[in-house]
Write a structure and sequence with these properties.
With 182 residues, this protein is of the alpha+beta class. It is 17% helix and 36% strand. The strands form 2 sheets. Strands 1, 2, 3, 5, 6, 9, 11 and 12 form an 8-stranded antiparallel sheet that branches. A 4-stranded antiparallel sheet has the order 4-10-7-8, with no helix packed on it.
């Protein structure tokens, strides 16, 4: 099982633009969006994927049809956490029982949060702190979860790359998904 981290992922210009809690703050739902790699970016998050993720994953980026992304806020004053899961095409799984994973999963901590807890834990029990300006990437079939936040708010950008567009985005490039933890 290979889990990779890149600390100091983005330069100061990106970080300054991301230093706006309104970009990150969500109330109860995750706004999920599909973006084809042939599309031009429409916001800061898509610009980062278009330029910086493309550079980071230059050897495999050409294989992907696109990506889905969403922002996740987990607070200490709630029961929010993300239970163990894999990043799968959930619509396909519900319809057929087939578990089709994304090609690559990433988590980026781009907001200067002060947080205790909220570590990303994998099936081998390894844990990674939600450190500001850290990118974590891994094979989507690896089961992972977010441990409870004990102090503050944990902000993250999740991006999953896919070789084929997941079924959940066939009718629309947007999904509102309420997870048990949100």
């Amino acid at each position: 099982m290979v889990i990779n981290t890149i600390d100091n992922f983005l330069d100061a210009n990106y970080l300054e633009e991301l230093n706006n809690v309104n970009l990150w703050d969500l109330l109860h739902k995750q706004d999920m969006k599909w973006v084809s790699l042939s599309n031009r970016p429409t916001n800061i998050f898509e610009r980062i994927v278009y330029k910086e993720y493309r550079k980071t994953f230059k050897d495999t980026f050409h294989r992907y049809a696109g990506y889905e992304y969403w922002r996740v806020k987990i607070s200490s004053n709630s029961t929010n956490n993300l239970p163990p899961h894999q990043d799968l095409d959930e619509t396909l799984q519900k319809r057929t029982g087939v578990k089709k994973p994304a090609s690559l999963s990433t988590v980026f901590y781009g907001y200067p949060h002060f947080v205790k807890g909220g570590n990303l834990m994998f099936e081998d029990m390894s844990q990674y702190e939600p450190k500001y300006n850290r990118l974590i990437y891994f094979n989507s079939i690896i089961q992972h979860q977010v441990l409870p936040v004990t102090l503050g708010d944990r902000y993250a950008l999740s991006v999953n790359f896919w070789e084929e567009k997941p079924e959940g985005y066939v009718k629309s490039n947007f999904r509102i998904k309420k997870r048990e933890s949100e």
